Structure formats: structure tokens, C-alpha cells
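dumping these here so i dont lose them again. two proteins, back to back, each one seq then C-alpha cells. dont judge the mess
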Amino acid sequence: MVAGDAATLFGVLSNTDRLGVIRALVEAGPNGMSAGDIARKIGASPSRASFHLNTLSESGFLQRERQSRTLNYRIDFKTIGALINFLTEDCCKGSVELRNCCSMSLS
């Protein structure tokens, strides 16, 4: 991933609702969640959630699939992984001991 692409993706993530969607869908795993369940999980109105889901889908963070009358969303783990790899590819000059900083919890 090149810096410009990473910057664009970070711009998409620079919203608390969108971060909430990403976290909810990472937690949901490969089965994903319906748009309505996502809206409830992040405390957003259906229209506000739909706006953010569309933005995340268009950027490549999410995959969506229609199941009857419901839209189901899943994380595209390749996109998330590429962004994480962009951040850490040169981390700590390859030192295993220093790289452990990237796996420590910030909370």
C-alpha cells in the first residue's frame, strides 16, 4: 500500500460512527451483521448508519450482500490488514523485542 492510499483510508476512518461500525464488524467476524443491527450497536439512526455504511463500502473496508430484504455487511479483512501492515512494515527496524510494542493494548 502506498502512502496516498493509506491516507485516503485513514480519512474514511476519521469519524467515530465509522470507527464504531468497523469495531462492531470486526467483533462480529466473518458472518457480519445486518444494517439494522449495526445501527443499533453504534446508536445511530438507520439513515445515519446507512450513510456511513455506504462510505465504508465504497472505500473497500466493507463487503455488502443482499439477503432477501436485508443488507448484510462484513469487514474486508484484506483492506484492514493492508492498512495495519502499512503502519507496521518498518516497525522497530525488524527487532522482535521492539515489535511487541505493536501488540500491546493501549487501553
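---- next one ----
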Amino acid sequence: MQKLIFFGSGGVAREVTSWTAPGFIIAGYATLDAAEHARFGLPGQAFSDDVTPGQAGTDLAVIAIGLPGVRRRLGERLAAAGFRFATLVHPSAVMASNAVIGEGSIVCPLVNISPNVTVGRLSYINFCVGIGHDATIGDYAQINPGVQIGGFATIGTGALIGSGATVREGVTVGDGATVASGSVVFAGVRPGVTVLGNPAKRMRAFED
């Protein structure tokens, strides 16, 4: 079995561990909170977040963090340090044979990925997500539970789609944009914008 190291020890890491542990040897978890590793009884050992492949005993990493910006910065740093990234797809996911999943992306249980879908690298597709035909999910995107994405939609680099949201067919959500939970997106969302509601509208008060 392959050996891997998780980066992160919070909720996302524990969720992914619950279904990947039987198929891999987990060396441990690189974390800023070593007590979290012990508190949740995670396998392997706790490493500092600046661990090297040599110290971990593997160069195969999983970034199990639910924030697109953090995942991007960490991915760039780890790649420079010599790590490569495991692509994880739960066996219950239904995925078309011509769908493309980028390096380091995670596809959780009960996800449906239709024909001609492309998912970029280091993206996180949480459970019970549906992605329609010919859609594109950019690098570092975060797609939370229960999201439905229509055919030919585009989700930009580092975008976050909140739980239960719907992105209608053909719609583009720009790089770094946020779609709030439960929203229905009928029209394009500009980069960096936060939208909320049904129909989704810009909410400047929630933007950085």
C-alpha cells in the first residue's frame, strides 16, 4: 500500500481519513495543533507543518483543508519542497469515464460527475455533489456538500460554493468568488465577489 501524509488535522482531514484509511498507510498529519491529532485519535504521528518528505517517510501528500486560499498557498510550498499530491476518489462516486480529475483533488462519497467534466488540481468536491456534463471546476475550488452544478458551468480558480447551492447551466463563477450556502446562481459571478440568495445577488458586506 502507498504511504501518505495529511496536511491538516481538522474536520476535513478527519472526514477524508474515515474513508481513505483502509487503502493507505497514513504516516501522520502535519498540523499547527498537535493536540488535535491526539484528541481525535488520528493514525500515524503528528508532524510540524514544515515537515519534509524525508522526515515524513513519503513524498505523497493530501491537503485536507477546506479553505481554497490556504490550499493554494500550501500546495505551492509543498510542491517546492518536493511533495506530490494524492488524487482521492471515493468508490461510491459515479464518474464518467472521460471526466478528468486533477492532481491532488478529492472527490468524496456519493458525488456524481458527468461526461466531459474537468476538475482542476487540489480541488475539494464534498459529499452528495452533482456536476453536470461539460462543466469545468478550476484549481483549488471548494465545492461543499449538496451542491448542484449545471452542464457547461464554469467554477473559477479558488472559488467556494457553499452547501446546498445551485449553479445553473452555462453560468460562470469567477476566480476567488464565493457562493453562499443555499443560493441559486442564475447569472455570472465576477471574480472575488460574494453572492447570496435566490436569485443570488452580490453581498458586499461579506467580502474582504
